[in-house]
Amino acid sequence: GQNIDQPTEMTATEGAIVQINCTYQTSGFNGLFWYQQHAGEAPTFLSYNVLDGLEEKGRFSSFLSRSKGYSYLLLKELQMKDSASYLCAVRDSNYQLIWGAGTKLIIKP
Amino acid sequence: TAGITQAPTSQILAAGRSMTLRCTQDMRHNAMYWYRQDLGLGLRLIHYSNTAGTTGKGEVPDGYSVSRANTDDFPLTLASAVPSQTSVYFCASSDGPESTDTQYFGPGTRLTVL
After folding, report:
1. Which band of pLDDT confidence, cut at 50, 70 and 90, is reported for residue B53?
2. Is B2 an 8 Å CB contact of chain A?
3. Residue A70: pLDDT band by 50, 70, 90 thresholds?
4. Which residue of B3, B29, B37, B109 has the fewest CB atoms within a 10 Å radius of its CB?
5. pLDDT of B98 over the 70 cut
C-alpha cells in the first residue's frame, strides 16, 4: 500500500530552526509537495521537489532523497505565524497526490 | 481574485438527506479535485476531474458523486448522507498533471451529519 509518515506534533521556539521529516512509500514517484495549513483554513502550497537535493525559498527549504524515500522541510528564524500544520504529499504513478496526516508545529515565545 | 470558492461554509445535515457541495474556480484550471479531511488522517481524494466532461474515482468515492459540465464548476453530491460523512471537504484545482501541478484549495465546507 501507499504510505506517508510524518511526526504528529513538534514544538519549537521563536527564532529557532526546526526540521519536519517525511518518509514515503508510494507506487511511483512524480514529485513531493509541502503545504502549510493554519487551523480552520485551507492548505497552501509551500514547496515542490522532484529531483534530489535542497530547494530554498526564503526562510523555508525542502530536501528530497528519492533513493531513501525521504524529505524534510526546514524552517528558519521561526515566527509565531509559522504555528500551523505542515502537510507532506507525494504524487504517485497515476499523478494523484497521496497525503500525510500532517505535522502540527507549535511555536513558543 | 476569487480563486476557488466553496459553498456552504458549514452545514448540519440529517442522516438520509441529500446535499450538494458547490465548488467554483475562476483560474481556468483543467483539473479539479474533492478531498475530505478528518482528524488524524491525511487528505483523502474522493473524486477528481482532469478536464471538463470527465470525472474519476479517488480513494474514497463511495456515497459521493460528481459532475463536470464546464471548466469552472465541480459540485459534489451526497445522495443519502450518513454520519461517517461528517468531515471537512476541500475542493482544489490545478493546471493538470504536468510540471509542478500545484493544487490550489478552496476554503472548505464543514459538514456534520446527525
Report:
1. very high
2. no
3. very high
4. B3
5. no
Residue A85, phi then psi, degrees to nearest 5: -95, 145
Q: Which of A30, A53, A43 is nearest to A100 (CA)?
A: A43
The continuous run of DSSP H or E covering B24 comes out as strand B19-25
pLDDT reported for residue B9: 97
Burial A15-48 (b: 16+ CB within 10 A, else e): eeebebebbbebeeebbbbbbbbeeeebbeebbb
Task: Please check whether residue B89 touches A, CB under 8 A.
Answer: no
User: Which residue in A48, A87, A100 is closest to B100 by CB distance?
Assistant: A48
| Residue of chain B with shortest Cα separation from A33 | B102
Average pLDDT value over all residues in chain A: 95
Looking at residue A27, its pLDDT comes to 87
Nearest chain A alpha carbon to B98: A95
Closest CA to B93 of B15, B25, B18, B47: B25
Across all residues in chain B, what is the average pLDDT?
Answer: 94
Nearest CB among A45, A100, A101 relative to B102 is that of A45
Chain B residues inside the 8 Å CB shell of A87: 42-43
Torsion of CA A26, A31, A32, A33, to 10 degrees: -130
Pair B106, B91: CB distance under 8 Å? yes
